[in-house]
Design goal:
Blueprint lengths: L1 H12 L16 H10 L4 E7 L4 E7 L2 E5 L2 E5 L8 H13 L4 E7 L12 H9 E7 L12 E3 L10
Parallel strand pairs: 5-6, 5-7
Antiparallel strand pairs: 1-2, 3-4
Length: about 160
């Protein structure tokens, strides 16, 4: 758990100059802690503890709950620290946005349909942006009503 704290502290809490803080939830009384952990969608994990003369299987939690105003985001189980900074930062960004920016994702020219799959990119983009499938016409003078345009790997040129 100390590696998780270090990543969180050095990458997020320290640079925030007091705007972000973290704390450990007290684990006692156990029944109340387990109830709150369940409400927050944290998942219990089992740990094997080996002593000099005994072997125990204990239950614990390795998750994270982030709060911002009236919103919360949960990382149910932290398995590896490899992507933890990204996971925390993207969840903070998701909670902080008040109105999602809109992104027109073009279609009609053999583009890669990345937003329709179950890729990490598609999931993350849908969390942060309002993705709109937008057929790209041959020519238009109509104004765009989106904040950005994404065109992923068109295979044909404007209908040719």
């Amino acid at each position: 758990m100390s590696a998780i704290c270090a990543i969180f502290w050095w990458s997020i809490a320290r640079p925030s100059r007091g705007k972000v803080r973290f704390e450990f939830a007290p684990a006692s009384p156990p029944a109340e802690f387990e109830r709150k952990a369940g409400e927050a969608s944290l998942m219990p994990v089992q740990f094997e503890q080996v002593g000099s003369d005994q072997f125990q299987v204990r239950r614990g939690y390795m998750g994270l709950v982030l709060f911002h105003r009236d919103k919360s985001e949960t990382i149910p189980i932290i398995k590896m620290c490899k992507h933890l900074e990204y996971d925390i930062t993207s969840r903070i960004a998701k909670m902080a946005v008040r109105v999602k920016k809109s992104v027109a994702v073009t279609s009609g020219h053999g583009e890669i349909e990345w937003q329709k799959g179950s890729s990490k990119l598609a999931e993350d983009m849908k969390d942060l942006y309002d993705l709109r499938d937008t057929p790209l016409p041959l020519s238009t003078t109509a104004p765009w009503t989106v904040d950005a345009l994404a065109r992923g790997g068109p295979q044909t040129e404007n209908g040719r």
